[in-house]
């Protein structure tokens, strides 16, 4: 009798492609992280000299990192899925080769072109309301396809399909071209939320013929590798992916405030049509993995926190590290609450720091300002089904002052700090759970801490 080899561990592989970091994660059947690899590569330039993602490096990196995993005999890869930032298209020819750069969503957009499109469909306000997409130039990725058609008709003519980045990554391994709802639904200006279909302009311009057929977010396809048995997911837009663990774990209506550079308040239980004023306050809809509208509002609060923390640290000649684990001092809060606080995010930048006794007081004042802006932003999406819970994940969930003040501001809600490492990647694994995992979905994926009002 020969010795039986070590049992290989069944895993799912998830590529999580951010603007800066490209990561590969392997999770076992309990969603424990068993392997992680991170890469960064230099941007390249498009034909106008603007910085853009290096598609070739990205493609090679996907294959290289997979090769590395296949060489290790402790893992048995059952399935692979992808999540990445939205608002970016890859234009493929008949043979599946990219025809153009992966244009940066921050690329300057020709005003005349956007104006022309908006005017043809009821003006910018109407157009933005219909598509739930604030007018954001290249960040409305549908307008990138429109631009290609108008400015580079030869490349457009050769384009068989325009795929959003997550679907392009999936295509590399499955050879299949599909579109997914989460990518179509992220401020692309492609989707008409009233009709629940592509907006009229997409059909009028014939752009729908360049968009691959829509398939369910939980769909999987066989890999093109000869002899391989693993399944390939269709890929997801990262913001929608990060919501999946919450949707599967909590069934009572909730709001999630996902904090980072942007603090995004997400309400999957509010599908009331957008109003003009909501749109102007940076509200929009996403589509969930089930294709349902999810109302969201954005606040540039993490960015502001970074700038102002540094300003406070410099002024009081200390380091921002001092703020990391600062506890809330309710006496300071009472003292500061007497002052008028604006809900405008930029208001704290105009405050004279000399009025604060020390850095502790100044930092409390900063968070009071941020919370005031956060409340205004979150209230924009609060309507809909009666929500009783707020979850905060990301950087601010670890900030005791922020969390206590938020709980204080929403006394009628249960406020929780939620921590879940790699929520985005785990979302992409969960959405294809049934195709690779024999275990039930664990119900303790998300750690939560309650904060009393």
Q: Main attributes?
A:
single chain, about 450 residues, alpha/beta, Nucleotidyltransferase, domain 5, 2 domains, seven-stranded mixed sheet, 20 strands, about 35% helix, about 20% strand, globular, transferase
Report on the architecture of this protein:
Belongs to the FGGY kinase family. Keywords: Kinase, Transferase. This is Carbohydrate kinase. One of its GO terms (cellular component) is cytosol. By secondary structure, this protein is α/β, with parallel strands linked by helices. It contains 16 helices and 20 strands. Helix 14 (about 400-410) links the parallel strand 18 and strand 19 (about 415-420). The chain is globular, with a radius of gyration of 23 Å.
In short:
This protein is an alpha/beta fold and 453 residues long. It has 16 helices and 20 strands.
The CATH architecture of the largest domain can be given as 2-Layer Sandwich
Largest sheet report: 7 strands, mixed
Radius of gyration: 23 Å
Taken as a percent bin, the fraction of beta residues is 15-25%
The low-confidence parts are: none
CATH superfamily of the largest domain: ATPase, nucleotide binding domain
The total beta strand count reads 20
Total count of helical runs of at least 4 residues: 16
Instruction: Give the fraction of residues assigned to helices.
Output: 25-40%
Overall CATH class of the largest domain: Alpha Beta
Beginning-to-end CA distance, first to last residue: 66 Å
Q: Mean pLDDT across all residues, rounded?
A: 93
User: What number of domains?
Assistant: 2
Shape: globular
CATH topology of the largest domain: Nucleotidyltransferase, domain 5
Give the helix/strand class. Answer: alpha/beta
GO molecular function: glycerol kinase activity
Pfam family, one: FGGY_N
InterPro entries: ATPase_NBD, FGGY_C_2, FGGY_N
Family: Belongs to the FGGY kinase family.
